Recover the amino acids of this structure.
């Protein structure tokens, strides 16, 4: 259980980093970088939680 949570947090962290990368690519302001990271983190956590509960990848991504 603990290892699964650590894996989810790691994947969510990298999802947040990817969201910030896309934000920087599209020239977002500096004050919104933290917000973009938090939203990317939460979306990544929700997506991979749904995938671990055997939801279809299309539903989990939507």
């Amino acid at each position: 259980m603990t290892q699964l949570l650590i894996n989810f947090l790691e994947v969510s962290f990298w999802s947040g980093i990817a969201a910030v990368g896309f934000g920087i690519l599209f020239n977002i302001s500096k004050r919104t970088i933290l917000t973009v990271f938090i939203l990317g983190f939460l979306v990544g956590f929700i997506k991979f939680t749904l995938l671990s509960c055997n939801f279809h990848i299309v539903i989990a991504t939507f």
User: Anything to note?
Assistant: The longest helix spans residues 2-25. The chain is about 80% helix and 0% strand. The mean pLDDT is 89.
